[in-house]
Design brief:
This protein is α+β, with helices and mostly antiparallel strands. It has one helix and five strands. It has a single domain, classed as Roll (SH3 type barrels).
Amino acid sequence: MCLGFPGKIIELDEFGATVDIGGTKREVSIMMLPDEVVMGDWVMVHAGMAIAKMDPIEAMKTLEVLREFADGLDD
C-alpha cells in the first residue's frame, strides 16, 4: 500500500517545488506532473514526487482525515 499526502505549493522553480503539508514544508519534484502547476495549487505528494494535481477542497478533506487518523494513534 502506498500513501500520498496533499501539499500546497508555496515556492516553485522549473523542476521542483516547496509544498506545505499540514504545516511541514517539503521539497518535491514536479517532473512527473502532466499539467502545469502554479503557486497555490494543491498536489498529491508521494516519495518526494508531486504525482497529481488535487482539487483544493478534496486536499483539505484528505488532510483532515489524515490528522484524525494520526490523533487516533495517540490513544
